[in-house]
């Protein structure tokens, strides 16, 4: 390893205040069925309190939680037909934000409107569109359908939710951060590439199993060989990962979701969901059990990230080495969601590709794995 020395100047950490503006785009609030129980639900997001309710026509709606009449909390109200009724004076609010009825009044004031968010109920999930400029979602900015979701040939979603107390940019940085997969998640990446274009940021990663981190396999147990991952963020907060786990003699196909929505500038709700394809070797309950096992493993990985985020500082000028990913280019892509549409520059959305040279990391990580195995053998642990 070569150490380059220019001068004795100390590198300072630069960090501007976290943005108080929230990202433009689709955000997943969780599984749709959670909100389809005939009750209004409180969601704290985008620095405010929202109410989610299913109207009588089956549609899921999201409104500002506070009634524009006298400030009553609609999330404590009652669903009546296609409207949410305020618990204070029974004003009825439709999913479009219009007050449709005041039972004790002859007429509804013409200005009786409240904030309503566009929603999308798709593949078993509820999405909300946020735009500080108040524009509807453009036709080309979509969440793609997920093959296998709600299909009999795949398992149901296994879902996890946790609150993280930091700014959500920390999540996005992982898109380009290959090295942390080895040191934080005990993975062994062998191929790593990023492609950013438009509102989509993709990470291609292949990996091999780490012999020093696998438990001693029982007789007849499947031996993990590695994995192949194609993970894409569609907008600022929703990632779909087409994930294949390679075992001796077979592959297991899965779709992993990593998504979040901001509570405020310094906290967010982190969701993960996974489905597994049923197969001849993993039919019925066997596939369901595999999905639950994978979910526990993935959740432990998220918890490792959360522990890092909890203790690190925000840094706008990270000091990078040659084998780090395109952090600055990713953040430039991410910035498009925090400015007005008119201020989105070509550099934020034009196609960018970067394949990381993995030769040096692989060389160093192989040595570390071998050292760990030698230590394990010296301590009398099984290989």
UniProtKB/TrEMBL annotation:
The keyword Lipid biosynthesis does not apply. Gene3D superfamilies: Naphthalene 1,2-dioxygenase Alpha Subunit, Chain A, domain 1, Rieske [2Fe-2S] iron-sulphur domain. Residues 26-128 form the Rieske domain. The keyword Manganese does not apply. GO terms for molecular function: 2 iron, 2 sulfur cluster binding; metal ion binding; monooxygenase activity; oxidoreductase activity, acting on paired donors, with incorporation or reduction of molecular oxygen. One of its GO terms (biological process) is lipid catabolic process. Its cofactor is Fe cation. InterPro entries: Cholesterol_7-desaturase, KshA-like_C, Rieske_2Fe-2S, Rieske_2Fe-2S_sf. Homotrimer. The two-component system 3-ketosteroid-9-alpha-monooxygenase is composed of an oxygenase component KshA and a reductase component KshB. This is Rieske-type oxygenase. It comes from Sphaerimonospora thailandensis.
């Amino acid at each position: 390893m070569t150490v380059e020395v220019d001068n004795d100047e100390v590198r300072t950490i630069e960090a501007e205040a976290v943005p108080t503006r929230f990202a433009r785009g689709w955000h997943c609030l969780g599984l749709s069925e959670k909100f389809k129980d005939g009750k209004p639900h409180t969601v704290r997001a985008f620095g405010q309190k929202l109410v989610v309710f299913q109207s009588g026509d089956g549609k899921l709606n999201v409104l500002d939680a506070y009634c524009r009449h006298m400030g009553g909390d609609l999330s404590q109200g009652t669903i009546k037909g296609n409207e949410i009724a305020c618990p204070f004076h029974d004003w009825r609010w439709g999913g479009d934000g219009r007050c449709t009825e005041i039972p004790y009044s002859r007429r509804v004031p013409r200005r009786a409107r409240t904030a309503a968010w566009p929603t999308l109920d798709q593949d078993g999930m509820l999405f909300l569109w946020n735009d500080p400029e108040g524009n509807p979602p453009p036709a080309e900015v979509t969440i793609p359908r997920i093959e296998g979701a709600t299909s009999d040939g795949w398992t149901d979603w296994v879902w996890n939710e946790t609150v993280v107390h930091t700014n959500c940019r920390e999540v996005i940085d992982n898109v380009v951060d290959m090295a942390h997969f080895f040191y934080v998640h005990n993975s062994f990446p062998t191929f790593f590439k990023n492609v950013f274009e438009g509102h989509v940021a993709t990470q291609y990663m292949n990996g091999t199993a780490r012999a020093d981190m696998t438990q001693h396999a029982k007789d007849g147990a499947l031996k993990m060989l590695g994995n192949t991952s194609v993970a894409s963020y569609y907008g600022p907060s929703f990632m779909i990962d087409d994930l294949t786990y390679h075992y001796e003699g077979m592959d297991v196909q899965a779709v992993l979701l990593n998504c979040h929505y901001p509570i405020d500038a310094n906290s967010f709700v982190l969701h993960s969901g996974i489905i597994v394809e049923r197969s001849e070797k993993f039919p019925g309950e066997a596939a369901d059990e595999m999905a639950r096992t994978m979910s526990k493993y993935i959740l432990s990985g998220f918890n490792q990230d959360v522990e890092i985020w909890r203790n690190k500082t925000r840094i706008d000028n990270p000091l990078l080495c040659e084998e780090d990913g395109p952090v600055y280019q990713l953040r430039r892509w991410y910035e498009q969601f925090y400015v007005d549409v008119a201020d989105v520059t070509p550099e934020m959305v034009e196609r960018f590709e970067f394949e990381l040279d993995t030769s040096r990391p692989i060389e160093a990580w192989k040595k570390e794995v071998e050292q760990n195995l030698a230590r394990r053998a010296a301590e009398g642990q099984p290989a």
